[in-house]
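Journal club side-thread
Mid-discussion, someone asked how the predicted structure for our own chain would compare to the paper's figures. Pasting it here so we can look after the session.
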Amino acid sequence: TSILIVQKMMDGELPGCPKLSFGAVDVRDVADLHIRAMTNPAAKGERFIAISGDALSMRDIAMTLKSRMGAAAARVPTRELPNWLVRVASMADPSVRQLLPELGKVKNATNEKARRLLGWAPRSREDSIIATVESLIRLGLLKDSAKKAA
C-alpha cells in the first residue's frame, strides 16, 4: 500500500526509488466523495475516479518527504534506481518481483467528472503524503530516528 511505501521510505528501508508511479488520494477525500455521490442526484448511475491528480512517482514522493519533513526525512532515498537494477534485485527478492510488470509505466486518470458534477475538491497529493507521515509518527509506527527528528 502507499502507506507502507511512505513508512519504508521514512525508515530508510529502501535503497532507492524504483521507476514506479501510481495514483494517490487522501482517505478523507475518498470518504467525502462517497458522501457526495450518495447525496447528490447528479451522481445517480455514474462512476467517479477518486484520485488527487496525475500519477506520482516514487521519486516524487521521496522529494516531497525531503522538502516538507526536514530532518525527519533524513533516511529517505531520492536516487532513482535503474530498471535493470530492480530486475536484478527481483531475482533474490519475491516482493521486488511483483513490481516488475509496473516498472516504468505511468497510468494517469482524471477526477474531472467528480469535480464538475459533485464539486469535489481533494487535497493535494503532497498534503496527503505529509498527513500520512504525521499519522505514522503520531501512532508510533516509524523507527525511532524518524520520530525523534519530527
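Post-session note: The chain has one domain: 2-149.
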